[in-house]
Fold:
Amino acid sequence: MNFVVVSSIGAVFMGIFALFVRMKAAKKPTNVKKIILPPVFMSSGALMYVVPQFRLTGMEIIEVVILGMLFSILLIKTSKFEIRENEIYLKRSKAFIYILVGLLIVRLALKYILSTTIDFGELSGMFFLLAFSMIVPWRIAMYLDYKKLFKQLHGQHL
Structure:
């Protein structure tokens, strides 16, 4: 089976998994670890660049990072916290589900289009960097929002 198809199926399942994780997370109070650790764990995926077939050119890196940061704006706008029962919770957002699905569809369409002209390994490197450069700004924004509410709730610094 085609590598692009297999990786796209994997992306769909990861997107569905992310939706369930997000819905479950809204039921429990959040903390700094829950915000910061996902991109830290994801960063281990950068080891793929040790293998030459996954490496990107400077221009590809710039393009992908800019696109990832633009996509992160949608995630930032739909990720808000609230204080309930003297704890900080991630607010549920119906728009988040649609945005996540929309981003997944755009990602799959881009992968399909680009797979005709870009080698699979290089394309994999691009989409990892796209996801990482989308998640990092989003999590930084979440951390800053959390920190404000934490100060409001506890009147102290983290």
Summary: The chain has a mean pLDDT of 87. The first helix runs from residue 3 to 25. The beta strands are 81-84, 87-90. The first strand starts at residue 81 and ends at 84.
